[in-house]
């Protein structure tokens, strides 16, 4: 009788430990970084409409172009950022679209 009671208790205890337990698994949020591609180009490589806009702008006549960047957004839109050396530590920056229109932010 003791053996039967002991075996029954052992089976019940074994079944309790063998029962599947559900564990909560927390998933960390995934961050997707969308960045634009930025490439430094020579000022001579700017599109002709951009160069024409720069040369026709009276306020920029005295400032030489010091650097130029081509930015390609995630959507595929291309813009150009141009730096002008205005004689100060903070350069003058302007942005243009491929048709030469100035982009004001």
Distance from N terminus to C terminus (CA atoms, Å) equals 89 Å
- Largest sheet, spatial ordering of strands: 1-2-3-4-5
Assembly state = single chain
Radius of gyration: 34 Å
The fraction of residues in strands falls at 25-35%
Unreliably modeled segments: none
User: How do the SSEs run, as a string of H and E?
Assistant: HEHEEEE
Q: What CATH architecture of the domain at 37-103 would you give?
A: Roll
The overall strand count is 5
Q: Give me the secondary-structure category.
A: alpha+beta
The CATH class label of the domain at 37-103 is Alpha Beta
> pLDDT average, as an integer?
82
Sheet with the most strands?
Answer: 5 strands, antiparallel
Overall spatial form: rod-shaped
Count of DSSP H/I helices: 2
CATH topology of the domain at 37-103: Nuclear Transport Factor 2, Chain: A
Q: Give the proportion of residues in helices.
A: 10-25%
Protein name: PepSY domain-containing protein
Signal peptide: 1-18
Keywords: Signal
